Automatic annotation (TrEMBL):
GO biological process: protein ubiquitination
Species of provenance: Poecilia formosa
Protein name: Ddb1 and cul4 associated factor 17
GO cellular component labels: Cul4-RING E3 ubiquitin ligase complex
InterPro entries per UniProt: DCAF17 (IPR031620)
Length: 331
């Protein structure tokens, strides 16, 4: 059966590719050792770019359009017969869809980088964000041009934060080409300045920055009642539960607002609130206190859709869902 479907022995995995509206099958792409080498651990397809991750921390990008043009052996139509299945019907049980995109040699490489946690692609022109795999680069993020791998000016972003949870960086979900960099007490919204077909490298500039309110930190050196100086061996963490800390960020596209969950470290139980910020300027628009306590030892999720905020927390094997409806404030 696998031989009839065109599945080879050196295949690592297979990927089904469809077009939607209307639903049409492009084909089954075989990820094999001949085309992509050994050590393939993961494959992701996004916006026409095939990203292949390897066990040596390398991520290689290929053009799906180029692969389909060169390696498509036969066009398939769901519900019609195909010679690749011995003239059986494509999509019928148990024959399914045959492999019709077969790679026999490595396709042209668009981009390669060695990264600790994969590569993100966005911006205009295309840029990528990645973190080198070496330990000394943990928490350091590189923003490069996807065209020629040139590092952008100010393209190395590092918050130098000391925290249990690592900082997070990603392209803005609004598709504006901006970058959001979230740390325990700072959120930087960055913009990439670049001219199309310009020989000059692009530049990363700060659009605006948000910070938490921090009370006086414990001094590294304290003096006891007897006059003895005691020096603390450990620095207070940036995400210390007694300090106001950014936890989650969600974007609402219709209102063009950022919803940010912030824990305030007040009282014995952890408390939290949600801040709504204007996406363009970062100006605070509204603050919503959450009724339920925020236990930082459990996972949390935040969703924001128009006038509804949903907070989901997991406590062991149980999930709690808290729904808030926003009301208009009349002055």
């Amino acid at each position: 059966m696998s031989r009839q479907a065109g599945i080879s022995q050196n295949a690592v995995m297979h990927m089904a590719i469809f077009r939607v509206f209307p639903l049409q099958i492009v084909g089954i792409l075989e990820i094999n050792k001949k085309g992509f080498g050994r050590g393939v651990t993961d494959v992701v397809l996004s916006q026409g770019v095939l990203a292949v991750s390897h066990s040596n921390k390398s991520v290689k990008l290929y053009s799906l359009e180029h692969i389909v043009q060169r390696c498509l052996t036969e066009e398939l139509t769901l519900g019609q017969q195909s010679p690749l299945l011995g003239h059986r019907t494509v999509g019928d049980v148990p024959f399914g869809i045959p492999v019709n995109i077969q790679i026999t040699e490595p396709p042209p490489l668009l981009f390669e980088a060695f990264s600790h946690n994969g590569i993100q692609i966005g911006g205009f022109p295309w840029h990528c964000i990645y973190t080198p795999p070496h330990k000394k680069h943990r928490g350091t993020h590189y923003i490069c041009s996807l065209k020629d791998s040139t590092l952008a000016k100010n393209g190395i972003q590092n918050m130098n934060c000391c925290s249990l949870e690592s900082d997070v960086i990603f392209f803005h979900p609004a598709g504006s080409g901006r970058v959001i960099h979230i740390g325990p007490n700072t959120i930087n919204v960055l913009k990439i300045i670049s001219e199309l077909n310009s020989p000059l490298p692009s530049e990363v500039l700060e659009d605006y920055s948000l910070t938490t309110h921090r009370s006086n930190l414990r001094p590294r050196v304290t003096v006891t009642s007897s006059g003895r100086a005691v020096r603390s061996r450990f620095q207070q963490l940036d995400d210390d539960p007694t300090q106001e800390t950014f936890r989650l960020l969600e974007y609402e596209d219709e209102l063009d607002l950022l919803a940010i969950a912030v824990t305030n470290g007040e009282g014995e139980e952890g408390r939290a609130h949600v801040q709504l910020h204007d996406n363009q300027t970062g100006r605070l628009q509204r603050k919503i206190d959450l009724d339920e306590p925020w236990d930082e030892t459990y996972p949390h999720e935040l969703f924001f859709d128009r006038d509804t905020i949903v907070h989901i927390e997991q406590k062991g094997s149980q999930f709690c869902c808290h729904v808030y409806k926003l009301r208009t404030i009349t002055k």
